[in-house]
Amino acid sequence: MEKQRVKESGSVQSIHRALTILERLGACEDGLTLKEVALQVALPPSSTHRILTTLQRQRFVRFDPATMCWSVGVQAFLVGNAFARSRDMVTLAIPFMRRLMVASGETVNFFMLDGSEVVCMAQVQSQHTVRAISRPGGGAEMHRSAAGKMILAHMTDEEVAAILERKGMARYTDHTITTPEALRSELAKIRQRGFSVDNEEFSLGLRCIAAPIHDETGSVYAAVSIAGPANRITEARTQAMGELVEICARSVTSEFGGSASSLGSDHRR
What we know:
Tscrpt_reg_IclR_N; DNA-binding; transcription; transcription regulation; WH-like_DNA-bd_sf
């Protein structure tokens, strides 16, 4: 019995290490050498190589002899794509996101709540040469992103406090909100206005506007946003652009069979 438990513990550890390696490779577009992977996962190169070759046999990773780098393989894409297919809301949102890109001229992103942050699930890029790009799959802290603040505005005070306790409120620019009191005030404004604004809080020179997407229960776990240079999404254009984003979000909500309630009544205290 004891040997069985030890064996199971070792199997779980191996799975954890393999998944960690996949995560590290997924975060690096150019791939990583064996030494780099080993350093990132804090494992000996020999152990790292055994895991990589096992993943390679299943096509979850691939090796490029020319660069001596490992990268994510086709099977990882297929598994990830299966998840994307299961999220019907993302698929349904794309046509409306394209319309919003044409109407606003800016890059449109679809974000979903993932634990204590928001993750970009899909993107329709602006046709402008200078445009905002968030890599699909990339995450962002909720207190400094328009989509994150939009979702926070629909949470209870206790839920917001729990996220802030876990993630903190790091400052990234002079505009980043860094205190719970200031954030509560911002969320109240969002609930009254109906859309949220990232006013160069994520990155200087970048402004974003987001609106909520409701599921069938009326809850908000996703948001659509536009992102672009602050000199194009000016403060004077914020209201008009916000209304365009709201139209898109309402359309996705309706197409998904969601039930949108007013922000004021939706905020649960």
